[in-house]
Amino acid sequence: MSLKKDVQAGIIHAVETVRKTNPMAGYLTNTVTINFVANAQLAVGGSAATVYLPDLKFGIASCPCL
Asked: Whose CB has fewer CB within 10 Å in the chain, the N or C terminal residue?
């Protein structure tokens, strides 16, 4: 199998896994990209947990739901 086919198969597998498991991914971003990043996660089937204040990153990192 060629490298291109391997990469395509890996991407397809990753997207299918995300859609099946609907993982919640917490991340720290800025106010400019917050909607873009959240919408990208939702588009592939994930759940977004976004913070943009540095002090809140510790709360999201310790959340048992993630």
From this structure: N
